[in-house]
Design a protein that fits this description.
By secondary structure, the chain is an alpha/beta fold. It has a domain at about 65-415 and about 505-510: Rossmann fold. Helices cover about 45% and strands about 15% of the residues. It has 32 helices and 22 strands. The strands form 6 sheets. It has a 7-stranded parallel β-sheet with strand order 5-2-1-10-11-12-13, with helices on both faces. The protein has a 4-stranded mixed β-sheet with strand order 15-16-18-17. Strand 15 (about 535-540), helix 26 (about 545-560) and strand 16 (about 575) form a beta-alpha-beta unit. Helix 4 (about 75-80) packs across helix 24 (about 475-485), helix 18 runs parallel beside helix 20 (about 395-405) and helix 28 (about 665-675) runs antiparallel to helix 31. The longest helix has 21 residues, at about 735-755. It is globular. It starts with a helix and ends with a helix.
Length: about 775
């Protein structure tokens, strides 16, 4: 019917569609759906356009199956509105789910910040925060009305109550006797009887289950705990938490059953939200300067000053995918890549083996990438193609092409972008003043790369007025997708590259070598180590709470997932020394910590401990120094005087005999590091020298190891090294050969730390 209407219009010598200003037919169709027929169009043309619009809007899509891929905020917003916003409950039934009731979400599981990170300390689970977020956004009014025999108004009230419960956050331990517990219980009591009983059961289960009870001592979002309880109630009660780490198959089914049970009870459709994998995983990010970080939260926190080169995902066990996920992808009519964090949303989903191929094998579906709107600090603020300019849509696709196995072939054809022409210039100007920059749509480049850019006004006018922000409007975007889908027969087919053959739905994949231990195992290992470490104060005037200090140190180690557990094996004590007793020579540096190989103790000046950031810097530097341990037998500095002229000094380093060393580095690795520290070998294999010119500074190898360690973990912890490393940001030129040599030394140093110091070991070698 729609195709007939279009042909009827096109038979007119001047098609009414020619009166619409958009360049592409898809853009004309979407604008017609979203805005209606322009007022200036002639009456005869208006009749045809109105008829076409009516067909596009009234053609039913209730049976159309959609699968959406992504992370938290961007995915939840287009599915049903951002459920973490305070005013979400005022209008909870919006977005794709309202137009396409069979909308299902496949969610990224690499988040490790906030409440999710706190859960990972205790439970061998995947990250649940994004799933909770999307699950709440997936509540459908029709499902609530059918399940609980209520009308639309009452369904809205139920959604509002659920939002208050699931988004409730607490910073103090959650206990039955508290006022906040009673407030939650009262909210639950206002729900329909069956839903009330189910949520109260989950709430009680949090206290009765030995695995979950410990989590109540930490700050959390209650919805995450309820989701964890829904999963754990599906596990055999005789299984203890320690065993679950080795019984991921039990968790695999429990996650599926628990999430679906909770989804149905709160009014989401069957399989509304599923994880891309049930295997706990961590994000690993490589920057173009060679530094590699671990942990999704570090990606947003880091300010490396270099573009992201690539991302990988480290799994903690056999990678498991649900057959139901693969079946939903195969049967989908529409496949959507949701907007979200570039490197921590879509890419980790398609790193799961088999998912990208499942999308490619579905050749009948409409496949759409919804482009991000704004540059995101840490991810899209620098272009790898040209760091001197801002981010383009083609840069985003290039990142997908590089990081998704098999590239973007067959994953999407259309790219839905915001039209900046629709946004008031005053708004763009205000955003620019605030440092917010839109991602530029480079249409010609996208066409050249065989993608179809579709610019349209899919941003929320309401959010712009109320909160002064520009984001995707869930209702407008859903209508745009409906227009694209219903009008798909009108568009010329976009040829997909040929495939070598179908790829079957395999559900099990072996993990790569060097698989990481579970986060909860690592957290336990950190605290077991610190329980063996003597933490004490030196000086009568220094009064510290050593229990709190131990917790602070534990949090610091946990906050840097790149630090392997075996790095903590090289010190036995932590001494906090009163400033009056601190006798470390500060002539050449202002570093207030060091590792003492005599008693294998990390020593920190007492005034650095009170401020957590200073403690973190001091701890990282000394921890780095501990890795080379007692490598030095003797250090001497000799003056160089010729003809009564003082030319400088020579630093002599004599190494400990190999069999006497307690050092992370083997002999060859130690020699490599000393070469990078510009120490010169002599005929004696244990004797190294370094000439220091008069007036020139000098960083001894031990301190250099500590500073480089702190810099690699987080460059904000070592400004001295950050200054030295800045040479790698300078455009290289043959006019200054020494600059080239210096930059090359820096690159080799970074490679040494990535490939030697921070190289992950196989799980069995660091965990019994």
């Amino acid at each position: 019917m729609i195709l007939e209407k279009l042909r009827e219009i096109q038979n007119i010598q001047l098609s009414p569609l020619d009166l619409l200003p958009q360049l592409d037919l898809r853009e004309k169709i979407i604008d017609l759906v979203l805005r209606g027929v322009p007022d200036h169009v002639h009456a005869s043309a208006k009749t045809h356009l109105l008829a076409l619009r009516q067909e596009l809007l009234e053609t039913s899509v209730e049976d159309v199956k959609i699968v959406v891929f992504g992370g938290g905020t961007g995915l939840s917003n287009i599915v049903g509105g951002d459920s973490r916003r305070e005013n979400w409950a005022q209008k909870p039934f919006v977005g794709l789910k309202e137009i396409f009731p069979q909308t299902r979400s496949i969610v990224c599981v690499t988040d490790n910040g906030g409440s999710t990170g706190e859960l990972l300390k205790d439970l061998p689970l995947i990250a649940v925060g994004d799933m909770r977020h999307v699950l709440l956004s997936s509540i459908e009014s029709s499902n609530l009305q059918k399940r609980y025999t209520v009308d639309g108004f009452e369904a809205g009230k139920i959604a509002a109550i659920l939002a208050g419960i699931f988004n409730h956050r607490f910073t103090e331990p959650f206990a039955r006797e508290t006022t906040q517990f009673q407030e939650i219980a009262d909210r639950i009591s206002a729900l329909p009887r069956a839903l009330e009983q189910y949520l109260k059961y989950l709430l009680d289960y949090l206290f009765s289950d030995q695995c979950l009870a410990v989590t109540l001592k930490r700050p959390h979002c209650l919805g995450n705990l309820l989701l964890a309880a829904a999963v754990y109630r599906e596990i055999d009660e005789s299984t203890i938490s320690d065993q679950l780490g080795e019984k991921q198959e039990s968790l695999h089914r429990a996650v599926f059953k628990g999430i679906n049970a909770l989804a149905k009870m709160i009014g989401a459709c069957d399989r509304a939200v599923l994880p891309c994998t049930s295997t706990p995983a961590q994000l690993r990010v490589l920057y173009t300067n060679g530094v590699e970080i671990v942990g999704e939260h570090k990606l947003s926190e880091s300010r490396r000053g270099f573009p992201v080169d690539s991302v990988e995902v480290d799994y903690c066990d056999t990678i498991r995918i649900y057959d139901e996920v693969l079946a939903d992808i195969a049967n989908a009519d529409i496949l959507i890549l949701a907007p979200g964090s570039l490197y921590s949303s879509i890419i980790p989903v398609f790193k799961v083996p088999g998912l990208a191929d499942a999308v490619r094998n579905n050749r009948k579906a409409l496949k759409v990438l919804v482009s991000n709107l704004w540059v995101q600090a840490g991810e899209t603020d620098l272009s790898i193609a040209d760091p001197e300019r801002k981010f383009h849509v083609s840069d985003m696709i290039r990142a997908y092409e590089k990081n998704i196995p098999g590239g973007t072939r067959g994953l999407f054809n259309e790219v839905l972008c915001i039209s900046l022409n629709d946004i008031p210039a005053s708004v763009l100007q205000r955003y620019a003043v605030e440092g917010k920059i839109p991602i530029f749509v480079d249409r010609e480049r996208l066409f050249y790369e065989h993608y179809i850019p579709i610019e349209c006004g899919v941003y929320s006018r309401e959010a712009l007025v109320e909160r002064g922000v520009i984001q995707h409007d869930p209702d407008i975007l859903a209508l745009a997708i409906k227009g694209l889908y219903n009008g798909r027969a009108c568009f010329s087919a976009h040829p997909e590259p040929s495939s070598d053959g179908e790829i079957g739905p395999t559900t099990r994949y072996q993990p790569p070598a060097g698989v990481r231990i579970l986060p909860c195992q690592k957290f336990r290992g950190i605290n077991e180590k610190l329980a063996q470490v003597q933490i004490h104060c030196v000086g009568d005037d220094l009064k510290l709470d050593t229990g709190k200090l131990q917790n602070d140190i534990s949090d610091i180690f946990w906050n840097h997932p790149v630090i392997p557990l075996h790095h903590l094996q090289y010190f036995d004590a932590i001494s906090c020394i009163d400033r009056q007793l601190w006798n470390r020579d500060q002539q050449w540096d202002n570093v207030f910590s060091f590792f003492d190989p005599e008693d294998r103790s990390i020593k920190i000046r007492g005034d650095q401990v009170a401020v957590k950031q200073k403690l973190e810097i001091a701890l990282m530097i000394a921890l780095g120094e501990s890795l080379i341990g007692n490598y030095a037998l003797k250090k001497e500095m000799h003056e160089v005087i010729i003809d009564h002229l003082h030319l400088g000094r020579v630093y002599h380093l004599y190494l400990q005999e190999k069999d006497q060393r307690r050092c992370f580095l083997d002999n060859d690795q130690l020699r490599s590091f000393l070469a990078l520290a510009r120490m010169c070998p002599t005929e004696d294999e244990n004797h190294y020298t370094r000439l220091v010119n008069k007036g020139e500074g000098f960083t001894p190898p031990g301190l250099l190891m500590g500073l480089m360690y702190a810099w690699y973990v987080d460059n904000r912890l070592a400004s001295h090294i950050e200054y030295k490393m800045s040479v790698m940001k300078i455009n290289q030129t043959d006019l200054i050969p020494e600059q080239l040599k210096m930059a090359e030394r820096r690159r080799k140093m970074v490679s040494f730390f990535k490939d030697v110091i921070f190289k992950p070991l196989p799980r069995n070698s660091i965990w019994p």
